[in-house]
Amino acid sequence: MRASRRRATAALSVAACLLALPATQSAAEQRHGSGSGTDRGTATATSVYRITDTDSRTRTEIQRTGALVLSLKGDTAFVEADEHQVRRLRSAGMRLSRAAAPSSGSPHRAAPGDFPPEDSGYHTYSEMTEEVEAAATEHPGIVDRTSVGRSARGRDIPAVKISDNAGTDEDEPEVLFTCNQHAREHLTAEMCLHILRRYTDNYGSDPAITDTVDSREIWVVPMVNPDGVVYDVGGTYYRGWRRNRESAPVDLNRNWGHKWGCCGGSSGSPNSPTYRGPAPFSAPETSAIRDFVESRVVDGTQQLTGHIDFHTFSELVLWPYGYTTDDTAPGMTEEEYRRFASIGRSMAATNGYTPMQSSDLYVTDGSVNDWMWAEHGILSFTFEMYPSSGGLDGFYPPDEVIQRETSRNDEAVSILLEESGR
Ligand code: 0X9
Ligand code: CA
Ligand code: CA
Ligand code: CA
Ligand code: ZN
């Protein structure tokens, strides 16, 4: 058994104290930082609700109230909402029931700014940069440590290139893996670091890995949103933070420049967790990745052919477009859509995730996949990792699952790297 007993005990005693108070926010949710102090901007308390029989249309409607669809299990959505949003959803005819409070959370941590001791398997920002440096030192021939730029608060955003002759730009298909656009989705940084280790430590001993490294240029950006990550673990409890750390924090996955703000799939309100920012690429973090991707256009040809952006959670494989529920749209022919769906399904068959067009989950505009595909023709997917469902605790799985849940995507990552050569 993992070290959850102590947490659960702590949670229960806190919960007991709160029973005497108006039940606006459960103890466990408070411990996960929902309500005041989250990136909702206002001091409205939120809770997690279960809504049955949803579809893409109703889930998009849910998002439009400012509530957040956290995960999907069949047709049942788990939704984080405040009282005002709950009233709006109920008056729209939806039936909401309070989801059970998360069973585990984080206790006081030894040192603010770090993960609590029982979650020390997760990498802080500085541990992530150390791991990247170490990979470059240990594998000088095949690892090149670079940077895509700086975050809003001036933090370096490391990028790693893995390839034979890593210091040379060779004529090989290039593939990009990005993680942690959303701050609280910590398992994703572990996913990127796992990819880094897998393609370096096994080079020269595993023939398939060696062949891939020799025939591709693999780019990995483990933490797109370092400010948000540092903030999320910077308090006594996990904060449940999603956005970056500009003074008006931006949801980076609504800030990309294709069909930005077009379709009700983001918010113009700085208080919303899905705030799209004042302009496309207003956020330093998205514009840094944009500049990097544009720098991969060599002699008029985009070198990057494949991309996965890792998120948590819901165990989904998603492909564009997100801004429209139509399969085809400008820049997406039927044949291209079929290719996305077919690769998405074959990847999902290896990890047990559910494959779908991203707007089948809910409509988003300004998300990364739409821009990568529409502007650069990059085969770009979103993976929503473990767990398959749950409330806010779904963002904080115990570190014991890291190895299992990152290696779970090995075959899918291999498929993308393979397809990117076609
Ligand atoms: O809303 C998002 O940005 C992603 N989900 S998350 O819970 N990690 O925030 C999903 C983006 C995929 N695109 C669409 N659903 N359209
Ligand atoms: Ca642990
Ligand atoms: Ca090479
Ligand atoms: Ca190249
Ligand atoms: Zn996310």
Describe the structure.
This protein has 422 residues and is an alpha/beta fold. The protein folds into 2 domains: 2-98, Alpha-Beta Plaits (2-Layer Sandwich), CATH 3.30.70; 117-419, Zn peptidases (Aminopeptidase), CATH 3.40.630.10. The protein has 14 helices and 14 strands. The protein has helices at 4-18, 27-31, 56-64, 83-91, 125-138, 186-201, 207-215, 226-232, 284-295, 334-351, 358-361, 368-376, 402-407, 410-419, and strands at 46-51, 68-73, 76-82, 96-98, 143-150, 156-162, 174-179, 217-221, 297-298, 301-302, 304-312, 316-319, 354-357, 379-385. The protein has an 8-stranded mixed sheet with strand order 5-6-8-7-11-14-12-13, sandwiched between helices. Strands 2-3-1-4 form a 4-stranded antiparallel sheet, covered by helices on one side. A hairpin with a 2-residue loop joins strand 2 (68-73) and strand 3. Helix 5 runs parallel beside helix 6 (186-201) and helix 10 packs antiparallel against helix 14 (410-419). The longest helix is centred in the last third of the chain and has 18 residues, at 334-351. The radius of gyration is 21 Å and the shape is globular. 54% of the residues are buried. The model is unreliable at 1-31, 33-37 and 103-108 (pLDDT under 50). The structure holds N~2~-sulfamoyl-L-arginine, calcium ion (CA) (3 copies) and zinc ion. N~2~-sulfamoyl-L-arginine binds next to helix 11 and strand 14.
